[in-house]
Prior knowledge:
It is a single chain. The protein has 244 residues and is an alpha/beta fold. The protein has one domain: 3-Layer(aba) Sandwich (Rossmann fold). Helices cover 40% and strands 19% of the residues. It has helices at residues 8-29, 42-54, 71-76, 93-105, 146-159, 174-181, 184-204, and strands at 61-65, 85-89, 116-119, 132-137, 160-171, 205-211, 218-224. A seven-stranded mixed beta sheet has the order 3-2-1-4-5-7-6. α4 links the parallel β2 and β3. α5 (146-159) runs parallel beside α7 (184-204). The longest helix has 22 residues, at 8-29. The relative contact order is 0.13. Mean pLDDT is 82; it is low at 8-21 and 233-244.
Amino acid sequence: MDDQTTTPYERVLARRHAEGWTFLLEAARDPRTTGAVAPSGKALARALTDPVRARAPRPLAVLEAGAGTGAVTRALIPRLAPGSRLDVVDANPRFAARLRHLVRTHPRLAGSPEQVRVHQSLVEDLDTGRRYDVIVSGLPLTNFTPRQAETVMDRYLELLHPGGTLTYFAYLGTRHARALFATRAEARRHRAVEEVMAGYQRRYATGCRTVRTNLPPARVWQLRRPARSLPAPRTGPAPAEAGR
Length: 244
């Protein structure tokens, strides 16, 4: 498709089509790092990046983990105030390459390309030497083991400034889908991860909203690191909002 003869709308459609196929291929190749079968929609991206907008216009340190093909990254970049810094991390080398291209070519970064940096790494291994005001997570935590999910969540809390905000999402109906189609062991693993996440939600959640226009619909959680240390979260039954 020739960019000189197509409209911006047609180019967006072509990009989304390509990204959709990329997600399908990567989900089949590596479910540990690719939990979605489609990029996040605009409404979901807005909900995930709301804490950045809410703290404008002051400069922020922002981390996006599990950025995929950059659907949420594109929503984050225009919301960065002057002096802000965005670190984008994805363990998938093909996604990391796409993200670097996005950063190199994004018109908002033409005068300050150093404002956004892409890291190919597991978030558990990420070491940028800084803490963050906001962390936006796109990692497929329900694909992890309970221990892996706990490790990632603890790392997020370590990386946040006191009072910093973490946002992440979970698709609706995954528990019922796994109960119908997954093995018993897989369903048990999924329930155990939900119990781990429920512990963090009980202790740190400050908000939760449902984005029904996303495909599939998703629930977005906001958690805040407290100014003082708290005991580790206990696992237990998920609250009514979680995992449905």
